[in-house]
Amino acid sequence: MGIRLEHVNYIYSPDNAFRKQALRDINLEIRDGEFIGLIGHTGSGKSTLIQHLNGILKATDGCIYYNEQNIYDEKYRMTELRSHVGLVFQYPEHQLFEMTVLKDVCYGPKNLGLDDAAAEERAREALSMVEMPEKDYEKSPFELSGGQKRRVAIAGVLAMHPDVLILDEPTAGLDPKGRNDILDQISDLHKQTGITVILVSHSMEDVAKYVDRIIVMNRGEIFMDGAPKEIFKNSELLESVGLAAPQVTYLMRRLRGIFPELPEDVTTIEEAKQALLRCLEADK
Questions:
Q1: From the centroid of its chain, how far is CA 236?
Q2: What is the value of pTM for the model shown?
Q3: Which residues partner with 222 through β-bridges?
Q4: Please, which pLDDT band fits residue 284 given cuts at 50, 70 and 90?
Q5: Among residues 156, 158, 242, 266, which one has the fewest Cβ atoms lying within 10 Å of its Cβ?
Q6: Quick check: is 95 in a domain?
């Protein structure tokens, strides 16, 4: 089933001079088990869109369905939606507030009505998933590094056992190793559990490596929607809205002047490596 949006519009400050339409007639279906990359230039509507998916923002008009239930029905409980659709903000400090790491991750399960023992069991399970060392469980979350804070924020959402995990720029400000660690863990989680993942990112390299579907936003509208290779093949179209294909894609296109047999749709470093090795083997 999943999430479905029908003719969703959203206007900030509709009744004054600062009026701005952030979403325009969004029609979108997010199917169970997908790993989606959501990309777009700053101000394209990405963050506004994801905040509609778990009810933080309410559409000015249009409908949103979760598992075929209209989340705007009077009898629909938003707390129920948020237990299934978890959102991790770009800045983990916005989600961390308890005295210790363990207490912070216990907060969500307790809000679902679990007792202390069950909440702690879920918290420990979630912290283990993000490979947070047990020796840090009693630390203040504000003593942690940026990467560790992100792990705790993700664990806090995972402890609620969501069906959909939305991550808004989860690797912003991290070094390459920290970025790869976080995204590898998210990818492993997706493969092991089948959870739906929506990754908002400015890194085309990260999106190309991990996701199986890309949604491109521009001026509050869905500009493109498809498999990574199809999206990045249209690099000129992406460039027209302030984006680009991964750098390795451009490099491989230039190398086709030397090796004409190189494929045109390479989007990751690993694909480039394998393609070049095949060319070199063929030339022996």
A1: 24
A2: 0.91
A3: 217
A4: low
A5: 242
A6: yes
